[in-house]
Amino acid sequence: MSVHKEIKRVTTHILQEMKERGEKISMLTAYDYSMATILDDAGLDVLLVGDSASNVMAGHETTLPITLDQMIYHAASVIRAVKRAFVVVDLPFGSYQGNSKEALNSAIRIMKESGAHGVKLEGGEEIIESVQRIITAGIPVMGHLGLTPQSIYKFGTYTVRAKEEEEANKLKTDVLALQAAGCFAIVLEKIPAALGKEVTESLNIPTIGIGAGQHCDGQVLVVNDMIGLTKGFKPRFLRQYINLYDEILGAAQSYIRDVKGNDFPNEKEQY
């Protein structure tokens, strides 16, 4: 039976129950009202208003340029569409690193001005103080480890993370620290599947994988990638379910032909 027929609103409690009974969590990104309406109607458990909007919506090379105000705009657009899914919003680069008071203020702005249900932060022990301060204020926090795109200039590459023992051990330490701090879930991005399995089994809270193997408690993809709107981006972890780029391209070309050939509008399409 479809979960979305049984649950009126997904909460952190529901997500925890899903892990405990072995039911996988479905998560996709969303940035606007129209797409969020479709994804919520489809029955997604979690919608992530990702700072990946910087890439797929604004055309930036990295996630770094997007601002807190812009994230709030996207989040509010998504929230207006959603009746069921749990909506998490990325705290953008520069809005929480190194300053737990600023982190709390950023999280409060997102919650108050967008109506979102929780926030997501990248990093481990180095951001624990910010995580704790936000959670103490009653705001749910999702962690994010492995490949953390906001640190791309430190990594210098989007390759798989934590393949070496030292980095893998740090990740294992970080996930436990985030759990102890009170995170309700953790995204694991682009790490070896075996490590994803080990980490998932070590935690009481859910893990959401993106390129982290099938043993995570749930999976997330960027919706524009999943539906084929992003041209030429096909990493190993991406399963493309439809190619909307070609579909929309063909529709636009047909429209151009009809307009230039004076076929649109026809008599039935005018007043």
TrEMBL record:
Mg(2+) binds at D51, D90, E122. Keywords: Cytoplasm, Magnesium, Metal-binding, Methyltransferase, Pantothenate biosynthesis, Transferase. Its main location: cytoplasm. GO terms for molecular function: 3-methyl-2-oxobutanoate hydroxymethyltransferase activity; magnesium ion binding; methyltransferase activity. One of its GO terms (cellular component) is cytoplasm. It is found in: Cytoplasm. The active site is at E189 (proton acceptor). InterPro entries: Pantoate_hydroxy_MeTrfase, Pyrv/PenolPyrv_kinase-like_dom, Pyrv_kinase-like_dom_sf. 3-methyl-2-oxobutanoate binds at D51, S52, D90, K120. Its EC number is 2.1.2.11. Pathway: Cofactor biosynthesis; (R)-pantothenate biosynthesis; (R)-pantoate from 3-methyl-2-oxobutanoate: step 1/2. Its cofactor is Mg(2+). It comes from the Bacteria. Catalyzes the reversible reaction in which hydroxymethyl group from 5,10-methylenetetrahydrofolate is transferred onto alpha-ketoisovalerate to form ketopantoate. NCBIfam families: panB, PRK00311.1. Belongs to the PanB family. This is 3-methyl-2-oxobutanoate hydroxymethyltransferase. The gene is panB.
